[in-house]
Specification:
Mean pLDDT: 94
Radius of gyration: 18 Å
Structural class: alpha/beta
Largest sheet: 4 strands, parallel
Helix content: 40-55%
Distance between the termini: 35 Å
Length: 252
């Protein structure tokens, strides 16, 4: 039986187009034949999300994006580590929505008992730790290791910090007992493939994991829930929202 092509919307809640393109390039390397990845970069917000407040902003923009663009896709990837707006999107839309960090962490659990997240900025640590907790995985986490140096651009941070990220990963293994390393942060898409042979445990690329998890869930063709914690909420009027999102909240 021939499998129907799968269309996946890669919705970047950050405003850096170059990061979207990097994620798409990384995802297309691992995508199955016939899978189409379509990117979208947030039209407003911040270059990369690194705080709770920025995550709230990014999540709201994500909901607008999905209200306008999700129709016709088999799955959506919330393409920012920390998954801003993920649970709200699952509640509001019928299409399966996969979180970038969620996919990476779930994949890591299939490779070892405890994972560590390694990322490029110290400011990300509180939010990433809370993301792990929100997914119910604190008991499997060996912690978040953060770079302690400046970088010149979010577009080039993966290359700038490659050696430092490898050093942090090795320390997470040796000092924290990590069985798996997850490279956290959309700007690090593609780095795992370059460095995985320098790290003594499996290293997960979040974008690659998100694509494969999205393909798997889309192939399962789950029905939209009508009960449970992610059932569609009752419709209600709103004021001042983007028209497509207002229509969705109203029950359209």
């Amino acid at each position: 039986m021939t499998r129907a092509p799968i269309r996946i919307l890669v919705a970047n809640p950050n405003t850096t187009e170059a990061v979207t393109e990097r994620m798409l390039a990384t995802g297309r390397v691992v995508a199955s034949h016939g899978t189409e990845l379509v990117g979208h970069t947030a039209p407003r917000g911040v270059p990369y999300v690194s705080s709770r407040a920025e995550a709230q902003i990014a999540g709201a923009v994500l909901l607008e994006t999905l209200a306008e663009r999700a129709s016709g896709f088999d799955a959506v990837i919330v393409a920012a580590f920390g998954d801003p707006g993920l649970f709200a999107a699952r509640e509001l839309f019928d299409v399966p929505v996969v979180g970038y960090s969620e996919a990476a962490l779930v994949t890591a659990l299939m490779l070892g008992r405890r994972f560590s997240v390694v990322t490029f900025a110290r400011a990300l640590e509180p939010w990433y730790a809370e993301t792990i907790e929100a997914h119910g995985l604190s008991g499997r986490s060996a912690g978040v290791r953060c770079a302690d140096r400046a970088f010149s651009s979010v577009e080039t941070v993966g290359g700038e910090m490659e050696d430092h990220l490898v050093d942090l990963a090795r320390r997470a293994v040796e000092e924290d007992g990590a069985d798996v390393i997850v490279l956290g942060g959309a700007p690090l898409a593609g780095v795992a493939e370059r460095v995985k042979h320098r790290i003594p445990v499996p290293c997960v690329d979040a974008m690659a994991a998100a694509v494969k998890q999205a393909e798997a869930i889309a192939a399962l063709a789950p029905v939209a829930p009508t009960a449970g914690r992610f059932a569609r909420p009752p419709g209600k009027p709103s004021h001042g929202l983007a028209p497509a999102l207002a229509d969705r909240i109203a029950g359209g």
